[in-house]
Fold:
Amino acid sequence: MVYSLNPDGSKTSEEALNQAIQAINNTGFVGKLEAELANRINQGNNKPINVVIWLKNKNTQGLGNFNIPSGAFLQEPLINLLKENNQQIILQSSYAPVVVAAVTPSFIIKIAERSDVERIYLERRRVPR
Structure:
């Protein structure tokens, strides 16, 4: 059995450990939004921002042997919502629960309220040197 210890060598409670893990996981975020994205939204401009929306990976067991990639299955409700609200879909991952889209700041806030959304990041493109 593995235990986490306090600096004085005493055993850390499970609750304290879970709070510490949660604090680490939330570093750099404002709720579900990456801090830099939240700052951009607060600037007041309503021009679309390219974002990466990471969905919660729900348990997909019991679906039978369908040829539906899990990423696509999880994305469908969000994709429908984006299309209905004229938000531009840039990429749907075939294998991960990820959607990249150009979304207005007011709509990003609406998406963040969804229970199936884990995190929303500012899209960053890596350019070779």
The chain has a mean pLDDT of 85. The chain has one domain: 29-122. The two ends are 47 Å apart (CA to CA). DSSP finds four helices and six strands in the chain.
